Structure prediction request, 828 residues.
Amino acid sequence: MAKHEVVVVGAGFAGLQLVKKLRGAGAAITLIDRRNHHLFQPLLYQAATSVLSTTEIAWPIRQVLRDRQDVSIELGEVTDVDRAARTVRLADGTERHFDTLVLATGVEHAYFGHDEWRPFAPGLKTGADAAKIRNRILSAFELAERSDSAEARAALMTFVVVGGGPTGVELAGMIADLAHSTFPREFRRLDTHSARILLVEAGPRLLAAFDPRLSAAAQAALERRRVDVLLGEAVTSCTAVGVTIADRPVPAHTVIWAAGVAASPAARWLDVPADGSGRAIVLPDLAIPDDPAIFVIGDTALVHGPGGAPVPGLAPAAKQQGEYVARVIRAQLRGRPSRPPFRYRHQGSLATIGHRAAVADFGWIRLTGWLAWWVWGIVHIFFLIGARSRVAVALSWLWTYAKGQPSARIIDEE
Amino acid sequence: MAKHEVVVVGAGFAGLQLVKKLRGAGAAITLIDRRNHHLFQPLLYQAATSVLSTTEIAWPIRQVLRDRQDVSIELGEVTDVDRAARTVRLADGTERHFDTLVLATGVEHAYFGHDEWRPFAPGLKTGADAAKIRNRILSAFELAERSDSAEARAALMTFVVVGGGPTGVELAGMIADLAHSTFPREFRRLDTHSARILLVEAGPRLLAAFDPRLSAAAQAALERRRVDVLLGEAVTSCTAVGVTIADRPVPAHTVIWAAGVAASPAARWLDVPADGSGRAIVLPDLAIPDDPAIFVIGDTALVHGPGGAPVPGLAPAAKQQGEYVARVIRAQLRGRPSRPPFRYRHQGSLATIGHRAAVADFGWIRLTGWLAWWVWGIVHIFFLIGARSRVAVALSWLWTYAKGQPSARIIDEE
Prediction:
């Protein structure tokens, strides 16, 4: 009998976890990704702010799955799904047959209908994004050091982070650390303390997904680091010379987008209902309506958690979904189908505010300050793949912690 | 009294060593570089073959010199020197005054008058070059895995390295290691042992600067790794589909240029005599004729060693020149000018052939095989800047040595 063919698209947290949990299930698995590596996105902001190198938080997919003879890995871009023919189509025009299909294609940036802002306000989803943001931040200080115009220097020294979720909070805190603790000793003409770091959030508080007391603690910690936190204000334009916040023009060389995401086009490929941000609406077993052999998981699916709230776009949620669908597929392959509804278990929320400060919300306990920072560090080290990355990242962090010299401050050449 | 202004252009081995050795000399030093980082070029081929990440062998110049209040660092590109006005001109049109000028601007690739080959055969001088080569090598295997055409696959699996000096030998050996030890377990359809690695050298032997017995040992070690060593043959054309070696067309997806270098335009800026590859011809005190306050050092100068042979373009030679000129400048500043002729002390030549094999030529002793490899590793760890890099690189090497899984195998996105 021919083996059951499982095609998985996307080697992020959801897709990779699914494939890992299908070990020994007897399926012929094809894992397709546009990139040759799995990226540990929760630490991507550290690559953007030069504490870590991208290679410390990215692993070749082939290496991660090298022992899995049942998995074939393809570097390729999926452009469509033909449900009737049971194939996915790739950008080069070729097709792959599936018996079971799992789409775990994640999210992209969304500029709320203003795609023209994209070149001026890069977001942070890929290693290339992190490099672009790192180059902009570091170049701003270098250009300011050489500038003789007070006006030009002020724009170079203005950093605008749009969006007060964990990524925005983390980026703003790290830029403040660069300006106020790493750089003062390294620049001779420029007073790097003159850096203005604006964190702009349209909602009423930072970290909307956390307990309000932690939102307040994060804001206080950022303000101690001289970050200007602007709540209830929106960016209304974004150009090569800066942004407009509400009605005020703010000249700024560096603008970073941490505000909105939109699902990848998985729902469109499948022609199934989606929510406002494009996420495929799936059934409680994470399959699409009327097609129990096609699943959508991770950030590109709208999944409801306990109480009906949507499951958040966090790495643990994605991994739980991958694990759940692996169980469903295994049951199917054993000829004993079983599909209890997916249940999300929230393990907590964590965000750092520069070095040595963080907020952690585990529901039963909330932490702030240096204790939260240590918890955050240990948790993240634990979830990195492989002993080598754990040692390398721990080394980078200890070094930066002890010396205040993040060492990956390399401006790439074009 | 105004301080004596020393302008140093280039923060490679020569320029950085000079600045280090001017500590406490009482000069006002300006160090100008196009890049914000010093690059450890002897290990760049490891970044190109994904053993190390570029950040492990690059250091922000400001960090290296953070304690030097007498040094001002500028990220900028020098485009000319006005000897009469005693200024250097930058690309943005501004100028910097000098009392003493030291040009240490290094070399660039030279394609023997065939600049049209450049896009098809990248060379290896910068971090960006290393990324480009790494992306090409890794993409070749990925595309071959997916290719259904035997002809296309053969071209994808052909890697041509042009030039049999240390860089060429090292690159060929590392590509062979990827094909024959790292990748066989990671690809499912592709037989990665089918890779053809050609090392093309126009001269009669590899590693012309080494003892002939070591050239033979390096060749034998490469051939054991199934590298085809072609001696006395030249590449006569280079296009998007491959190269022509002598008269034979060789379809190849990946061609790497490790053959020729030309000096940066320092001699042209100064309007002084240069040799055939553009190196400024300097006096025994490394100053230019008729202008004892302008020095040219490192790979962009033609310096004669003991016996009249040109000093080789090696890191230790560049550092010795930087140190020498620092002594000359210090003597001048103390009002006791002293310019004994520069004397080059050759410390030895080292080259690796993939993992666990190398050749080392110290003159008084020659080593090959694993012993040479350990000596090579320890020497290079020792010369890296800072404890953090030493630990990080040692960790990467030990990991690769033990597991055969170089971990920086990340294909960048455009």
